[in-house]
Amino acid sequence: MSERILRMGARGSMLSRMQSATVVQMLETANPGLKVETVIVKTTGDQVTDKPLYEFGGKGLFTKELEQALIRGEIDFAVHSFKDVPTTQPLVDTSGLCFGAVPAREDVRDVLVCAKAKSLAELPAGAKVGTGSLRRQCQILAAHPELKVEMIRGNVDTRVKKMKSGEYDAVILAFAGLKRSGLFEDACMTVIEIDEMLPSAGQGALCLQCRLDDQSTIDLLQAVNDPATSACVEAEREVIALLNGDCHSPIAVLATIEEGLMIVKAGVGRKGGLPPVIRVMASAPLEEALSAAQSVHQQLIMAGVERMLM
Question: Whole domain around residue 76: which residue ranges?
Answer without folding.
Answer: 4-103+205-225
